[in-house]
């Protein structure tokens, strides 16, 4: 039928995630770590946007953002998120669901310090998701931050940090001919993971 291997149900989901991400790093034209992140208000109204995955280990999946942004405010009242990676070049998707926890300030400081100077100034100057009366206001705020910090260290803004998604479910989806796709979902049961194949 097809020489695409079926998803190995004996795989560790984090190892399988790493293998698929590694394939995407080779095949995607840019941002293989881009993912859609869905949040919802406390009464369940969803919103979704793209973010970059900035860390993953057996604890979970980390992204960074402005805590007072729309997503930041939604996460404060409802910690449940859904993540979606879709790699067109590989015809694969991965869905992840679970609550978030805040990363430690040490971890956020270390990641913030690794960003380019302009990215750090941007985080200082941007009131993400709030109305901006004109682009020049933002440019003036960037210039003010630039002059304030000069070549010295730029402290991480108090409203900028990271979240770790603690996965309760991780689903792998592989395209196969004639839409006879392959799906397998790992769900967390305490410290162990159960796996099951799903109809496409
Ligand atoms: C490929 C891509 C990657 C992005 N990565 C981030 C990110 O890592 N952090 C972030 O705050 N915004 C990122 N953005 C911008 C978000 O999509 C979004 O515009 C912003 O976070 C505000 O979302 P909100 O108003 O729902 O809070 C990215 C956008 C794209 C298209």
TrEMBL record:
Keyword ATP-binding recorded: no
GO molecular function: FMN binding; pyridoxamine phosphate oxidase activity
Record has tRNA processing as a keyword: no
Cofactor notes: Binds 1 FMN per subunit.
First-level EC class: oxidoreductase
Residues involved in substrate binding: 54, 111, 115, 119, 179-181
InterPro entries named in the record: Pyridox_Oxase (IPR000659), Pyridox_Oxase_CS (IPR019740), Pyridox_Oxase_N (IPR011576), Pyridoxamine_oxidase_dimer_C (IPR019576), Split_barrel_FMN-bd (IPR012349)
Domain of life: Bacteria
EC number: 1.4.3.5
Domain Pyridoxamine 5'-phosphate oxidase N-terminal: 29-141
Positions of the Pyridoxine 5'-phosphate oxidase dimerisation C-terminal domain: 160-200
Cofactor(s) required for function per UniProt: FMN
Reactions catalysed according to its record: pyridoxine 5'-phosphate + O2 = pyridoxal 5'-phosphate + H2O2; pyridoxamine 5'-phosphate + O2 + H2O = pyridoxal 5'-phosphate + H2O2 + NH4(+)
Pfam families, per database record: PNP_phzG_C, PNPOx_N
Pathway membership, UniProt: Cofactor metabolism; pyridoxal 5'-phosphate salvage; pyridoxal 5'-phosphate from pyridoxamine 5'-phosphate: step 1/1; Cofactor metabolism; pyridoxal 5'-phosphate salvage; pyridoxal 5'-phosphate from pyridoxine 5'-phosphate: step 1/1
Stated role: Catalyzes the oxidation of either pyridoxine 5'-phosphate (PNP) or pyridoxamine 5'-phosphate (PMP) into pyridoxal 5'-phosphate (PLP).
Quaternary structure (record): Homodimer.
Protein name: Pyridoxine/pyridoxamine 5'-phosphate oxidase
Native source species: Gluconobacter sphaericus NBRC 12467
Gene name for this UniProt entry: pdxH
């Amino acid at each position: 039928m097809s020489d695409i291997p079926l998803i190995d149900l004996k795989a560790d989901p984090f190892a399988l995630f790493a293998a698929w991400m590694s394939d995407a790093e080779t095949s995607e034209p840019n941002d293989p770590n881009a993912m859609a992140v869905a949040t919802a208000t406390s009464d369940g109204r969803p919103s979704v946007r793209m973010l970059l995955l900035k860390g993953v280990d057996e604890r979970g999946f980390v992204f960074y953002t402005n805590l007072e942004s729309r997503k930041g405010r939604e996460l404060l009242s409802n910690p449940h998120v859904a993540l979606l990676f879709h790699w067109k070049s590989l015809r694969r998707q991965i869905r992840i669901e679970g609550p978030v926890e805040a990363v430690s300030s040490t971890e956020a400081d270390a990641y913030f310090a690794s960003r380019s100077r302009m990215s750090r100034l941007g985080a200082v100057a941007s009131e993400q998701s709030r109305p901006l009366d004109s682009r020049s206001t933002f440019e003036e705020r960037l210039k003010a931050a630039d002059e304030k910090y000069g070549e010295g260290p730029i402290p991480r803004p108090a409203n900028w940090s990271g979240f770790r998604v603690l996965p309760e479910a991780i689903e792998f989806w592989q395209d196969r001919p004639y839409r006879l796709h392959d799906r397998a979902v790992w769900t967390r049961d305490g410290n162990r993971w159960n796996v099951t194949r799903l109809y496409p």
